[in-house]
Amino acid sequence: MGKLNYTVQPGGSLCGRLRAPGDKSISHRAVMLGSLADGLTRIQGFLEGADCLATVDAFRGLGVTIEGPEQGHLIVHGVGMKGLREPATALDMGNSGTGMRLLTGLLAGQNFSSTLIGDESLSRRPMRRIIEPLTRMGASISATEQGTAPLAIHGGQPLTGIEYAMPVASAQVKSCLLLAGLYARGTTRISEPAPTRDHTERLLTGFGYALERRDNHIVLNGGGHLHSCDIDIPADISSAAFFLVGASIAPDSDLLLEHVGINPTRTGIITLLKQMGANIIMSNERLSGGEPVADLRVRSAPLHGIRIPESLVPLAIDEFPAIFIAAAYAEGETVLSGAEELRLKESDRIQVMADGLQALGGVAQATPDGIVIQGGSLQGGAIDSHSDHRIAMAFALAALRAEGAIQIADCANVGTSFPRFVETARQAGLAVEARD
Ligand code: S3P
């Protein structure tokens, strides 16, 4: 695969209205639960990015008929809880941690064996965090010595519900165990150290599966059924985030982001930007398929640095590359701590962002669990995204206030979460060009 690079000319403002692509987390889960349901599940607003398409392909490999996607529409012919079939080949989850971790939980409960593989980045990411509790449930999973993919899931192991206190706040681990719990005998009881995105819980409820949520506990009993339903997926706040930051830092911006998911387990970005002085107004709040959505109007505003409350870290976990760009242009210092998980994402987002900011003349110091950024200005220059979609998009928007052009290497993976990013961003006012 040739490497795709971006060149972004400095300056400009973001104006007009745009709808960011569908929510990645919900798109994965909609396909998974739709596949296990009885009957047809019709999905609209599906994210046609490489990550979610890998999940669609995986379920086709497991014998599920899926029509589409066509302009965000997908029809999943659910096969029921026991209807999946042994795949003929390894299932390739590409770049997607969500795809791999959730599917592992689901496959652990099947009576056939399967293998999950991923790209270079995914093959470096830690899987013991799911293998350990799944093994306690009775699953049999082999990984590399480092605890990474490929994962071989040995089927036909009866699962039993466990009580599990998650050591890290991770929606992927939580969701993995809930999906395994559907196939377990008895009760699965999970507690999380801090609230994380709850799309699995909401969707399970939408598919008619009873679960109990109290304080930081989620409890479900195995052996139930999922009933198909229609799902309207909101725009991904994690993709909208780049434009929230871009329009905040670029003078004379006035941008309306439409139909954005504002699930309270995802809105850390709005809280943090507002604490920094951003001008973001929410309107037209409504519920769409069990998830709250709203339109977000964002206008330029002078930002100032903040100490990021650790309690907000899981609620903004994917938005830190964008937040660091806001911090780089804010007045004063921004300090993040308690965010070591950022080092385990598609890239080491603490180091890669610190290196990128420094390459552009910014002042940023990585720490073991966070970063300290002195706000000011950024010059132009060349940075490497390390194949990480969110690093690439964050630095692309940084050009709006930079003093020179920014060249960003290795941007093909933007397509994992934001197909048509370049077109969308250009339309809003960013002078970005992609070149092979
Ligand atoms: C996700 C959970 C988060 C997030 C990822 C999507 C999900 O990962 O970073 O992009 O859909 O459950 P962790 O659970 O590892 O924090």
Question: What do you see in this structure?
Answer:
This protein is of the alpha+beta class. It has 2 domains: 5-22 and 234-435, Enolpyruvate transferase domain (UDP-n-acetylglucosamine1-carboxyvinyl-transferase, Chain), CATH 3.65.10.10; 24-232, Enolpyruvate transferase domain (UDP-n-acetylglucosamine1-carboxyvinyl-transferase, Chain, Alpha-beta prism), CATH 3.65.10.10. Helix content is 29%, strand content 26%. It contains 12 helices and 23 strands. The protein has helices at residues 24-36, 50-61, 97-108, 128-137, 171-181, 199-206, 237-249, 268-275, 320-329, 349-359, 389-398, 421-428, and strands at 5-8, 15-18, 38-44, 65-70, 73-79, 91-92, 114-117, 140-142, 151-154, 163-165, 187-191, 212-214, 217-221, 231-232, 254-261, 279-288, 291-299, 333-336, 363-367, 370-374, 381-384, 406-409, 432-435. The strands form 6 sheets. It has a 4-stranded mixed β-sheet. The chain has a 4-stranded mixed β-sheet with strand order 2-15-17-16. Strand 19 and strand 20 form a beta hairpin. The protein is globular, with a radius of gyration of 21 Å. The chain starts with a strand and ends with a strand. The mean pLDDT is 98. Shikimate-3-phosphate binds next to helix 5.
